[in-house]
Every structure is written in C-alpha cells, then in structure tokens.
Amino acid sequence: MNSAIELLAPRYDIAWYPWAVQYFFMIALSYASLWLAAPGLVFGKSRWLPTARLALLACLTTTLVAPVALLADLHQPLRFWHFYAYANGHSWMSVGSLILPLYVVGVIVLAWLAWRPALQANRQAPGLQGFIARWASLGESPTPRALLVLVGLATLALSTGIMLYTGAEVAIVKARPLWHTVWLPPMFVATGVIAAAGLILLLNRVAGERSTTVTGQMLKVMLGACLAAGLIAGSWFLDGINANVGSVAAALESVRGSAEWRSTALWGGLTGVALFGALLYLLTRPAARRPALFAWAWLLGLVALHVGWMFRWVVLMDVQTVARHSAGFHHYGVPAGSSGVLGIVGTFGLWLAAILLVDLFVPWRQARQGGRGADVSPAPASAASPDSSQEHAPEGAPHHG
Amino acid sequence: MDPIRRSLLGQLARLSAGAAMVPLSSVASAGINQQPPRREGDPSKRYGMLIDLRQCIGCQACTVSCHIENAAPLGSFRTTVSQYEVAHQETGEVATFMLPRLCNHCENPACVPVCPVEATYQRQDGIVVVDSDRCVGCAYCVNACPYDARFINERTQTADKCTFCAHRLEAGLLPACVESCVGGARIIGDMRDPQSQISRMIAEHKDELMVLQPEKNTLPQVFYLGMDERFVTRPDAEPVALDVLDPHGKEMGYEFGH
C-alpha cells in the first residue's frame, strides 16, 4: 500500500533514555562477572582465582553504579520509595525492584568476605589505607569459608533473578514487536557474558596483572558466549522467518525501510563475525606463540565491550524509534544533557571513580575464599597467580595513587 | 502487505470487536503481567467510544479542545487525528482518510499490569487512569501501550493519557473531544446500558465495527465504524513530514517526503 502518504501524525518521543542502556549494560556486566568470579571464589577452583579477583572488582563496581543509572531513568527519581510502598506483583519491573537491592547487598557482602582477610593483613598499613582496613575488616576473627560459599551461592541465585527480570521486563512488551520474543532475555545474558569477559581482559591489562591464565580463560569464555549468542540469534531468526508478524518480521521491515537499520545490522553482523574469528585465531595458535599474541587480547576486550553496549543501545534506544502506530521511524538525536551524552559519560565516570576508589583503598588483588589475615601473603605480587611469567611492577598497583 | 494478510487482519479486527461485546468476566489471576484488580469507578457502567469515521472531517477540533481541557504540554496529545492521503489502487484517484486516535481503554490494557507501583489502574467502569501523585515516571506504560496513547508529561514528569475526561463524565458532561466534534463522529456512553446510543449503534453495526491492532489482544473499547482495514495495524504508508534540520541538528521545519 505504498499509495498512501501519512500527512499528519504527532511525533512520539522515546520514553526510556540512554540511562536505561547504561543500567542494562552495567547490570549485565555485574551478573556476568559474578559468574566469572564464582569458580575461583565460590567453588574453590584455584586456577580461576586470578580471574575471580579481577571479576570481583568488575562485579562490585558495576553493581554499585548500575542502580544509579536506573534511578536516573525515572522521571521522578525521588519517588523510588513508591516501589516498596506500593509494590505491584503483577509488574516485572516491580519484581525487579525487590530482587535488585537484595542482589546489591549480596554482592557487597560477598566482596567484603572475599577481601576481608587481605584487609585484616593490611591493618598496620600507614595512613588512610590502614584506617579503612581497620574499620572495614570489623575485627580479627577469621572469615569462614562456608559463609563465603553460602553468600556466593545466594548471590548467584539472585543474579539469575536479575537476568530473568531484566530480560522479561523488555520481552513481554507486545507493543514493540522487536522486543517481544523469548530469544531476547538469553541474548541479553550471552552478550553480557561477552562484555564481562572483555572487561576482565581489559582490567587484566590495565591493572598490570597481565596474566596469560586469565587471558586464556576469558578468551575461551568469550568464544563460548559468542557461540551461544550466534545460536540464539540464529534460532530467533529461524523461529520467525516464516511469520508475517512478530519480532523477526518487524526486524526485516526495519532493515528494508531504513538505511540506518541496514548499517546497524551490517555493523553488528561484521563485528560479531570479526570477534568470533579473532577469538578462534588466538585460541588455535601454538602454545609457544600465545604469550605474545595474548598481550593484545585487551583489544578484543574493547571490541567485546562495544558489542555488549551496542546491542543494548540498538535494542533499547533504536527500537524505540521504530514507529508502532504511525508510519516510518521517529527521529532521535542523543541530547547533550543529562538524559543524553552527559548521562552516558557520567555513568562511565562514576564507574571509573568506583574502580579507582576500590583500587586505592582495598587490596582486591589478594581476594580469597575466606580464611585469616595471616594467610594473606604481604606482597601483592606474590598473591597473584601460579603462572609467574608475567612481570609485576615491584611496588604494586595499590600505591600508584 | 499482501492482500490475504490484510483481509485476515480485517477479519481479526471484526472478530475482536465482536468478542469485546461479550461481557467479560474479569479474570482475577495473580500471575506476573496479569491484570491487577480494578478499583474505584462505578461497577455498573462500562464506558466505551464509537467513532463514526463517515462523519469525521479531520478538523482537529477534538485535538484542540482536548488540549485546552486537559492542559497537555505543547507537542503531546491525548487525542489527535492522523490524516492519510490514499490513492485508489486502480483509478489512482486520491482521497483523504482520517483516523482519530486516543486511549482505547482496553478490556485487557497492556499498560496497567506493567506499572511497578499501580499508579496506572483501570477503574471498574473501564476507564484507565493514572494517579500522578503515585507515578514514578518510569515510562514503562508508555512503552507498553501499542497505541502511542501515553506520554510523559514534561511538566508533571509523570505518565499522562486520555481519561475519557472522567472529571467531565462525573459532572454529567461529555468529554471535550465529543462535545466539540462538529460531525458528531465520536459517541461515548455506557455499554452496559442497552438503551444508550453507543449500545444501540454497536448492536446496529456489529459486523462493520473494527478496533485497532486486534492481534495485540488488548481488546480495545474504542470502536471504529467505516474503517479501512488497511489502517487497523501500523499503516504501510510513506511517513509523515521529514524533519528539516540545520547543520547543528536543530529543527528548522518540515517538508514532505516526496
């Protein structure tokens, strides 16, 4: 019916701002890095401990920042207490508002338990570090391993609640056919794991750990997550390819009707294939060449973070520009202010500040599965990982501030 | 869109409009994304609207009077009339199609269960309203409504929508859009009262009535008479005006896409 022209229709603004992308990105990094910290910290696999230390840093900082972005996306942030005063069990968002604080507390307690022995070992440190270590370690008693495992398991359980509610909240919205698919929640998780593995690769490099064990583990996790994401995307496509309505039909319609959507689809596809190809290449090199190549893995980490963030941007922002009731697409330009660029940059800035503060005051490199302060070896470098091939700065990072 | 699919959707539209006539026993289920219980309002009534498109001349009197009555911010509308230029497929003759849009006060509203604080709720007379003192402005309902009937009011920073002018109905007045409609195209009334004009018209035109996006299963309670089934779903039309932006991305005006 191209013989019709829409002469008059209002312009509909988007309702969820980039804050939502920031929340979905941060919370995905949070739950995915929690699962990457779990083998080392909760399940006691010592080979995974170096990864777990980086993952715990990633997990705690993103967990602290994510709710800030979520609050900012409310048009009435100061009314957040209404979520608890008038909870509505019929709404996924309300269910999420009950899970989220429990999850945040779980992550904070887990990180505290894992860092406590190192904090206890740090009680004699001079200045603010020592003061914080004395204050935050709450006494000299040993940290029971069983308690850490228990809190870890409970937080992992809560994290599945976060995965479920963030996915379901969007996927139940029939009004936006592109969202309304059962394949969206698993795709959020898969891209979240890709991004979290990428973040740990990056932190591994930036924090000066440069552990090849961590790199190898994260590349494998990322490969698995890429395969899963490919499988989910493929299933979504095949599931809907023959339907006249639904998520895939809406996607095809958008791609047909808009040059921007075409380039988005092309970019997404190419980036995914390039990431997958690079991972395969790195992981299939002979063992002798790996250390030299793995030194560049942090670049893949950046690509992975880009994939995780862009997926959320496309899903949450771009989909809102597809008109659902009128013809064509709505124009959306990212505003400069707090509901746009400033909010995006501000969230990342806050996150960076959180990482730096933890790095300054908490000996996160010695996180361990409970125990006593005396078990923690004093030099940060020796606590790192069994593969001692990497070069550590002798003074250790906690002093660089 | 192919003709088979179109006619199927048309059938669906008629079917749903028919199904809505059956008095629905309200489903008291407690699952996530199910409808919470209705509250307030007169349970003996069920308001609905019938729009006789044969009478609509697209004058936008409803748009303007609603805007004034409900003090919506500029650029946001509780009701509006979309206009389309449609060419006849064989003769090429051009006509204008008018489509007044407003909240459908659905029997199964998608916007109500998603509200995390039950600020938006359905009254027992079927009218969907927002308690703006409770609304946290999460905009979930704005995204959940398939009809773009909701918006965030930039002045109150809460969700805003058509209320069938509930404040006027309670005072025994007609909604502003109905009151101002020059052709008498909008008919509002209690569908539980068999003698009301809307009930009589629904009975008379039962087979011709259509609702918007019936496939969303929202069971809209705004019925269109004289509807072109091609406009029941998202219109497959050349989009409205294109924004003309200056080099800094600021809007300068509109132009048509052809």
UniProtKB/TrEMBL annotation, chain A:
It is found in: Cell membrane. The keyword Transferase does not apply. Residues 389-401 have a biased composition (Basic and acidic residues). Pfam families: NrfD (PF03916). Keywords: Cell membrane, Membrane, Transmembrane, Transmembrane helix. The chain crosses the membrane at residues 20-42, 54-72, 92-115, 146-167, 187-207, 219-238, 265-283, 295-316, 336-362. The keyword Transmembrane helix applies. It is a multi-pass membrane protein. Residues 374-388 have a biased composition (Low complexity). Belongs to the NrfD family. PANTHER family: PROTEIN NRFD. This is Tetrathionate reductase subunit C. It comes from Halomonas saccharevitans.
Automatic annotation (TrEMBL), chain B:
InterPro entries: 4Fe4S_Fe-S-bd (IPR017896), 4Fe4S_Fe_S_CS (IPR017900), DsrO-like (IPR054822), ET_IronSulfur_Cluster-Binding (IPR050954), TAT_signal (IPR006311). The keyword NAD does not apply. One of its GO terms (molecular function) is metal ion binding. Residues 47-77, 94-125, 126-155 form the 4Fe-4S ferredoxin-type domain. Pfam families: Fer4_11 (PF13247). It comes from the Bacteria. The keyword 4Fe-4S applies. Keywords: 4Fe-4S, Iron, Iron-sulfur, Metal-binding, Signal. PROSITE patterns: 4FE4S_FER_1, 4FE4S_FER_2, TAT. This is 4Fe-4S dicluster domain-containing protein. Residues 1-30 form the signal peptide. The lineage of its organism: Bacteria, Pseudomonadati, Pseudomonadota, Gammaproteobacteria, Oceanospirillales.
